[in-house]
Design a protein that fits this description.
Length: 364
């Protein structure tokens, strides 16, 4: 696949404050790429640098092999959709959508044809002559999307485009925008702090924290193989057990847990060059150690509470050493799980991720 956008060693200072710290990323042609991170992590700043609304302090931004680092926003020819729609209230839907074409001096007949085309794409054929304030939030956002794609930009930027909508509408729009994006094959970068939205819509996600990029990967890989504790805790839920490395051999490593027990986990090619680690387990990776089940790693924990969530039970339990565990098991069990009960649980070597215990590294 041909790459569309390349951000190389990009840093942005606001006075002495580093809002973006040496960002490197490549977005492929036709890809839906999401920048995800907590508030203040630098997502919007990175998007503004790509759009040209802010100047980079150092680094390079390449769009289709052209260095656009010092170009003005309008010279970059990028489509943008903002959280607050930013439609012109005194213009009809058709006039709003026609605006970028008129600015580019496109011929009248072609403008008419293009506007009709995108109105169809966003399912608003009937609304050409309406004004924005006569439309719902979801419809206005579709107009904003139509206006951003009508001039066939090489890149579409979405800045928290759905955060003003209620949850049901947001979920419907996620699917709709994703399908429009796929059908048109338009390269898209979206900024959000909503991990569910990122997981639903993206081909790849870039996780940011404190201005830096923590990991760029597919939704599945971020969930299954987070690179560090921040990503593991930010995407989905995770149990972390403190562990000390004992030995490593042919793709497997033995660790000693806080209670002295030794467990074995797959290393997946990871270099284990320190002593202190965290065994990271998603709630559904922990199983009940029932008779007949072959689990390599076993542990005891005392049940504190059990929550029924339809297809599953969420069991909150605690080890003797005080480590809290959240376990997700199928709700169709042969016996009930009760608070106070000592539960035998376990996992297999391939189901855990090994993370460096950065807090231990800082202490030593
Ligand atoms: P949010 O999800 O809250 O929008 P974000 O991840 O998009 O957060 P940014 O808006 O990129 O974060 O801000 C990153 C950091 O840079 C924040 O600490 C913010 O206070 C700071 N910042 C952003 N814009 C400016 C500015 N114009 N001047 C000074 N500091 C700024």
């Amino acid at each position: 696949m041909e790459s569309n956008l390349k951000v190389e060693n990009v840093t942005k200072y606001y006075k002495k404050f580093k809002a973006v710290d040496n960002a490197n990323l490549t977005v492929e042609q036709g890809e839906f790429f999401t920048i995800l991170g907590p508030s203040g992590s630098g997502k919007t700043t990175l998007l503004k640098l790509i759009a040209g609304f802010e100047e980079i302090s150092s680094g390079t931004i390449m769009l289709r092999n052209e260095n656009i680092s010092s170009k003005k926003p309008y010279e970059r020819n990028i489509g943008m959709v903002f959280q607050n729609y930013a439609l012109f209230p005194h213009m009809t839907v058709a006039e709003n959508i026609a605006y970028p074409l008129k600015r580019r001096k496109v011929k009248k007949q072609e403008v008419k044809q293009k506007v009709e085309e995108v109105l169809k794409i966003v399912h608003l054929e009937q609304y050409a002559n309406h004004y924005p304030n006569q439309m719902s939030g979801g419809q206005q956002q579709r107009v904003a999307l139509a206006r951003a794609i009508v001039f066939s930009p090489p890149l579409l930027l979405l800045d928290e485009p759905l955060s003003a909508l209620d949850k049901n509408l947001r979920q419907r729009m996620q699917i709709e925008i994703k399908s429009i994006q796929e059908n048109l094959g338009i390269t898209t970068i979206s900024v959000t702090h909503d991990q569910e939205e990122a997981l639903t819509m993206s081909d790849r996600i870039c996780v940011m924290n404190n201005g830096g990029i923590e990991q760029i990967d597919t939704p599945e890989n971020l969930y299954k193989y987070p690179k560090n504790r921040f990503v593991a805790e930010f995407i989905g839920e995770i149990n972390l057990l403190k562990a000390v490395l004992i030995k490593e051999e042919s793709g497997y490593a033995n660790f000693q847990l806080s209670n002295g027990q030794v467990v074995i986990n797959q290393t997946r090619g990871q270099t284990l060059d320190t002593k202190s680690y965290l065994i990271a387990l998603r709630p559904e990776n922990i199983q009940l150690a029932e008779a007949g089940k072959d689990l390599k790693n076993k542990l005891q924990a005392k049940v504190e509470s059990v929550i029924y969530v339809g297809e599953a039970l969420i069991v909150l339990a605690r080890t003797k050493e005080g480590e809290e565990l959240k376990i997700k098991v199928p709700s169709l069990l042969s016996h009930a799980i009760l608070p106070g009960e000592e539960l035998a649980i376990g996992w297999n070597p391939q189901d855990a991720t090994i993370l460096k215990d950065e807090s231990a590294a800082a202490e030593s």
